[in-house]
Amino acid sequence: MGWYHAVQMLGNECPSAKLCHIVEPWFLGPGSSGPGGAEFAEFKNKTEEDHQVGFYKSLADVPPVADGVKRLALISGRTMDNPRLLGESIAAGCTVIYLEKPGAPSVKDLEVMKKEAADANVSICMGYNKNVCKYVRKAREFAAANEGSHVTFVSNNTYENTASSLGECFERNAEGMLKNMAIHELALLASFYDVTVDNIESVIVDKDFSSMQTLPGPSGKEFTDFDKVKFTIKTKTDKEVSVQADRCGGDTSYAMVSDAAGNELFRHCMPDEDDKANVSVLEAKYPGAMPYFFSQDPDYITVKERVAKMCVTGEEATDIATIDIAIAALSVGEYLTPLMQKELSNTVASQ
């Protein structure tokens, strides 16, 4: 993900941002001779030569901020490292932090990070790119124009529906589906539907759709997680919204609007037909990269540009998730996980 952010900025796709420094401790250290090491070295050499970008093993090695320059850090590392990286970014003179989701391993970590940034007068913007996605915007606009309608956000992924494929997924994303794959949707709920733990009135789990499994990962250790979920949340402020996530659902995500009887009125997909043309171009340009990079390419650009422009001008980054949204989304994920585990365990036990 960090690489894709870099190539977008190197390609001048974010006019308010200039990539100056890349911090990569793994490939500039013990990972240099392992898988991907040679490819990274090639990327480093070309980027240094063509764009005069500096490469460093740690943030402490990055040169001080020059007078009159505003520095933004884009943190796209391991979730467990983010609290440390945020502190090091502040120490390196950054006034704005772009933090990839979910931001930290726990709500407590995010709350500590929020205070650390506030004490240093540093702003944190989250990389929840679905907040600015076309399919989300169009569904929200349609729903707003049709009173009494209901929105369902559907997130799909392309894992094979096999024990080995899902087991590898469960181990690599050990924080669980609701704190990883579906966290984007929970951020949408927190951003646009007033969903917080304190404001949830009810949660209805679709037990016919949802599924939970315990599978061994590559290490041999067993992991329990959802391979697909569907639920509806009603808030105390009288808003209602649904989320559906399926690890094996395919490569198309979408937002659907239905009437009070559940009849579908509107659907917009990601990628849509316009996006698919861009995807084809990017597939040829970056062979072997993760497919989801291409379908979400315009949204990554939008988020980076709005955050970079905020850093430069102070202008509000419209619809960009804040650290408060990240805390709310992760709190809801932590709240829903045991609730849904209990619901689905009861279903299995009664069969």
Main attributes?
seven-stranded mixed β-sheet; single chain; 11 helices; three-stranded parallel β-sheet; alpha/beta; 351 residues; 40% helix
Task: Note down, in words, how this protein is organized.
This protein starts with a helix and ends with a helix. With 351 residues, it is α/β, with parallel strands linked by helices. Helix 3 runs parallel beside helix 4 (107-119) and helix 4 (107-119) runs antiparallel to helix 11. The protein has eleven helices and twelve strands. The strands form three sheets. Strands 6, 7, 8, 9, 10, 11 and 12 form a seven-stranded mixed β-sheet that branches. It has helices spanning 2-10, 37-51, 82-91, 107-119, 134-144, 163-172, 183-192, 273-285, 291-295, 297-313, 323-350, and strands at residues 21-23, 54-56, 71-75, 94-99, 123-126, 150-156, 200-205, 211-216, 222-235, 240-246, 253-258, 264-270. The mean pLDDT is 94. Helices cover 40% and strands 21% of the residues.
